[in-house]
């Protein structure tokens, strides 16, 4: 289903924006790919450096519930990059990291009723980053010292998305178990920035919707649905 229809472009402002425009009339699983993006989307308010060499794509999904869609996509990305022999891990909720540098991110946006646009950026064959990103971003090329066949990696990613999306719909608990394994965050003490407030606590679990369940200093468990983890202790 995923990838049965693929739109390919040399350049787009944003694959997510294009996918949003065609979502209503498009079949579930439609994929939009661009060689580069001029306004790639990162975390809210930020752009994603999207030159040629990276994988920039969006998938149109029509789930009954958008719960855990981003987590599902991060597991698919993890499996894809692991197949390239990269030492990746997932950082809650859906970034894929090598040590403390980001190699991939997922951005899911709702568009209309039951339309979820899942944007995925993978820093594949990127030889260098702007100075402001060098300390926080890496690529498969930089980590392995070689270029990869981009189309082959896209094919692996699409197959993984199909597999993990099916798993999410049929055996959600198994998908979440995989995410927990790859994130390796349960039981860890973390510091997380929530709208400018720094919160510290121990991760007890994630709930069925992917929220962090964090035990605070007084023993109270707080459900965290948004924020940026600044440290894992």
Mind explaining what this structure looks like?
The protein is of the alpha+beta class and 233 residues long. It has two domains: 178 residues, Bira Bifunctional Protein, Domain 2 (BirA Bifunctional Protein, domain 2), CATH 3.30.930.10; 44 residues, SH3 type barrels, CATH 2.30.30.100. The chain is 26% helix and 32% strand. The chain contains five helices and twelve strands. A seven-stranded mixed sheet has the order 1-2-3-7-6-5-4, with helices on both faces. A five-stranded antiparallel sheet has the order 11-10-9-8-12, with no helix packed on it. Helix 2 crosses helix 4 and helix 2 packs across helix 5. It is globular. The mean pLDDT is 93.
Can you tag this structure with a few keywords?
BirA Bifunctional Protein, domain 2, SH3 type barrels, 5 helices, 233 residues, globular, seven-stranded mixed sheet, alpha+beta, 2 domains, 26% helix, five-stranded antiparallel sheet
Topology:
Elements: E1 6-12, H1 15-22, E2 31-37, E3 55-61, H2 69-82, E4 89-91, E5 95-98, E6 101-110, E7 116-122, H3 140-144, H4 150-170, H5 172-183, E8 189-194, E9 197-206, E10 212-215, E11 221-224, E12 228-232
Parallel strand pairs: 1-2
Antiparallel strand pairs: 2-3, 3-7, 4-5, 5-6, 6-7, 8-9, 8-12, 9-10, 10-11
């Amino acid at each position: 289903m995923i990838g049965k229809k693929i739109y390919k472009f040399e350049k787009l402002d944003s694959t997510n924006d294009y996918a949003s425009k065609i979502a209503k009339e498009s079949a579930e699983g439609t994929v939009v790919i661009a060689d580069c993006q001029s306004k790639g989307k990162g975390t809210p308010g930020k752009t994603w450096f999207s030159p040629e060499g990276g994988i920039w794509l969006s998938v149109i999904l029509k789930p009954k519930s958008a719960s855990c869609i981003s987590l599902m996509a991060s597991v698919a990305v993890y499996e894809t990059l692991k197949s390239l022999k990269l030492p990746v891990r997932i950082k809650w909720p859906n970034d894929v990291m090598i040590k403390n540098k980001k190699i991939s991110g997922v951005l899911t946006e709702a568009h209309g009723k039951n339309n979820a646009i899942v944007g995925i950026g993978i820093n594949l064959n990127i030889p260098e980053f702007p100075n402001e990103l060098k300390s926080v971003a890496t690529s498969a090329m930089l980590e392995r010292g070689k270029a990869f066949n981009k189309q082959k990696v896209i094919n692996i990613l699409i197959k993984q998305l199909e597999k993990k999306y099916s798993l999410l719909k049929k055996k959600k608990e198994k998908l979440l178990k995989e995410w927990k394994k790859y994130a390796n965050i349960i039981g860890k003490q973390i510091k997380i920035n929530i709208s400018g407030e720094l919160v510290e606590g121990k991760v007890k679990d994630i709930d069925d919707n992917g929220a962090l369940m964090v035990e605070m200093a007084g023993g109270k468990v707080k459900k965290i649905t948004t924020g940026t983890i600044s440290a894992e202790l």
